[in-house]
Amino acid sequence: MDETVKAKFDSYPAHIKPVMFNLRSLVLGVAENHELGNVEEALKWGEPSYQVKGGSPVRMNWSPKDPAHYFLYFNCNTRLVDTFREVYGHSLSLQGNRAIVLNVADPLPAAIVSHCVELAFNYKRLRHLPLLGV
């Protein structure tokens, strides 16, 4: 783990760390399970960021300004969140065209979030398809 990313995870309150590490594991697992190559892990805009070659990056964060939620962010210049809204709008809380909003108190909807991350990590290959090929 990159030292700046580790410092960010270490800065989260004790009850938030496992939630954020769980989301990190899910993101890294998507890349591994779908053989998408190396994941670049870095701190961007003060948030852990993950990117694979040929994909669109995803970032994650929790903030004391909204302590009940944590967020998975996507590039707002893509059709990713609009596609998530169309496909998973009944199951996910979405913020504008940039984020999945997750509740700290609820279990992570792993299958759905994994699919969203998979679409982001394959975005450059899928961007021309209606609903990104879903």
From TrEMBL:
It holds the Pfam family DUF1801. It comes from the Bacteria. SUPFAM superfamilies: YdhG-like. Residues 19-120 form the YdhG-like domain. InterPro entries: YdhG-like. This is DUF1801 domain-containing protein. It comes from Photobacterium arenosum.
